[in-house]
Write a structure and sequence with these properties.
- The protein has 15 helices and 15 strands.
- It is of the alpha+beta class.
- Strands 5, 6, 7, 8, 9, 10, 11, 12, 13, 14 and 15 form an eleven-stranded antiparallel sheet that branches. Strands 2-1-3-4 form a four-stranded parallel sheet, sandwiched between helices.
- Strand 13 and strand 14 form a beta hairpin.
- It is elongated.
- The chain starts with 10 loop residues before the first helix and ends in a 5-residue tail after the last strand.
């Protein structure tokens, strides 16, 4: 009999068989379990998660809170689902074609709806749950991220408990969903919740009832676009004032008239204040910061505007957090940037301050058009429409930047280094680094409008043709053609043709949350 070589054992198939047996054994254990109180809850939770309804409802609720971190978390979680769901349902299930479990051991009370007929591996519900929970965890504070993660885990377990999936299906889905959530950082980096400020032992003397605190309120600030529908949006100045009056009854509240002189109103308030407070947007906070510097008093920022970039950089996203920061009495010192006429004779009184960004070029036209449109269509649609219209039609400005002639289409000067890209950089890692963040789009004879507009709106300003950026302690800009139009913290004004940007490092004392 001729000798024949035996085929080598297939260790991979043996491993898969063992994993399959372990998977079925784990399913049987869950199917035989009786978890009192969950026989009714888990099937309904699983059903509510069909087609992502649970997660998109959660995202909607988070968006309606008006808090920037929660809106970002909701958007990131939704994007992650949009990636994970087709990866599982279109690619994964068709590639593996695993049959659903036999549900003989599962009590009928758990199987209240028709079992799914699609393939089992991987679990789509689990992938969506993990994707949303991971996206939320990258942006939201722990009190929000933990309940969302617990709900996602409950949905994943419910898929086994109701007989819809083997545990292996669920684990694979969770892995795919988590990767999709983490993968969103490749195209949209997660921002730090709070900008850092150097550690300091400086504290303010505060009274529990708010005595010595003078709060100036710009009632014209705030999100717009909902008034016509009779919607009272969260974070509006009047909501913040009501909370301040209840929690700090001895504080003085000054309401500004629509045509009030901001600088004069804040100077008068700062003269008699131990602490100067401000309720309003970034432009109002800018005026308050100037008065606080001139009179040497600490500043308490209370969000009440459209974007509230500076307050959110401090970690203050609501009036409740502002009150807690005031009572904590912890101060930090942040940089203040300024722009002043260049050349001899320019003094401190001629400085125009900014806490976030100063912009020139097409951005000033963008701000004007955005403010015109946002009362009708809301701030974010208005920003997108204004960006497209302005950047398609605007022409570069002939400038001399540090003595070099340039045709500048778009330019930003940031107070401290910004980590974000896009049409309006919004977050920083620090508020006291002593530097200016300069970003410009410099053009030749032809402006690459379509590509540039797409790159700016997508948040990838660095891939825009002609893009330049650098960090500096000062910057001189000259407009040979006349006055320079400049937007400081969203407020547009005209300045002399020659200006210089600079910094006052650590000049402004601000209240910071206990965790900041």
């Amino acid at each position: 009999m001729p000798w024949r070589r035996r085929p080598a054992p297939d260790h991979r198939s043996g491993l898969l068989r063992r994993l399959g047996r372990a998977d079925r054994w784990a399913f049987d254990q869950v199917a035989a379990a009786r978890l009192r109180g969950l026989e009714y809850v888990l099937p309904r939770l699983s059903r509510f998660a069909d087609h992502g309804v649970l997660w998109f409802t959660t995202a909607g609720v988070m968006g309606l809170t008006g808090r920037a971190r929660l809106r970002r978390a909701a958007l990131r979680g939704s994007i992650a689902i949009a990636v994970a769901s087709p990866a599982v349902n279109i690619l994964g299930k068709q590639a593996f074609r695993r049959k659903r479990p036999v549900v003989d051991l599962v009590p009928p009370i758990r199987i209240r709806w028709k079992l799914p007929t699609s393939h089992a591996f991987p679990s789509g519900h689990s992938a969506s749950a993990a994707a949303f929970a991971t996206g939320v965890a990258l942006e939201a504070p722990r009190p929000v991220a933990v309940p969302v993660a617990a709900t996602a885990a409950a949905v994943a377990f419910a898929r086994v408990y109701t007989g819809a999936h083997y545990p292996g299906d669920v684990l694979a889905g969770l892995g795919i969903g988590a990767l999709a959530g983490l993968g969103t950082r490749l195209v949209w980096p997660a921002r730090p919740p709070v900008a850092e400020i150097g550690r300091s032992d400086e504290r303010a003397e505060v009274a529990g009832d708010g005595r010595g605190l003078v709060v100036v309120v710009n009632t014209g600030s705030g999100a717009v676009g909902g008034e016509a529908a009779g919607i009272s949006l969260p974070g509006r100045p009047e909501v913040a004032v009501a909370l301040l009056e209840r929690e700090l009854p001895a504080a003085e509240i000054v309401r500004l008239e629509p045509d009030a002189d901001l600088d004069k109103a804040f100077d008068e308030a700062a003269e008699r204040a131990g602490v100067l407070g401000v309720v309003g947007g970034d432009g109002t906070v800018n005026a308050a910061a100037g008065a606080a510097l001139r009179h040497g008093v600490p500043l308490l920022t209370v969000p009440g505007g459209t974007f509230d970039h500076f307050a959110r950089a401090l970690g203050v996203e609501s009036a409740t957090q502002a009150i807690a920061a005031y009572r904590g009495g912890r101060l930090g010192r942040v940089d203040v940037a300024y722009v002043t006429p260049a050349g001899g004779g320019a003094g401190r009184g001629e400085e125009r301050l900014f806490l976030n960004t100063a912009s020139f070029g097409a951005y000033t036209d963008l701000v004007d058009l955005r403010e015109h449109l946002e009362r009708r269509i809301g701030k974010w649609p208005a920003l997108a429409v204004a960006a497209v219209r302005t950047l398609r039609r605007s022409d570069p400005v002939e400038l001399h930047v540090e003595g070099r002639p340039m045709r500048v289409w778009l330019a930003f000067v940031g107070n401290c280094v910004f980590g974000s890209r896009g049409a309006a950089p919004t977050w920083r890692g620090r508020l006291d680094d002593g530097r200016l963040d300069v970003r410009m789009i410099v053009t030749g004879r032809r402006v690459p409008r379509v590509r540039a507009v797409a790159a700016i709106l997508a948040g990838h300003l660095h891939v825009t043709p002609g893009y330049r950026e650098w960090r500096t302690g000062g910057l001189e800009v000259v407009a040979p053609g006349g006055a320079l139009r400049l937007a400081r913290d969203g407020e547009v004004s005209s300045l002399p043709p020659a200006v210089r940007f600079g910094k006052h490092a650590g000049a402004l004392a601000v209240f910071r949350p206990a965790a900041g």
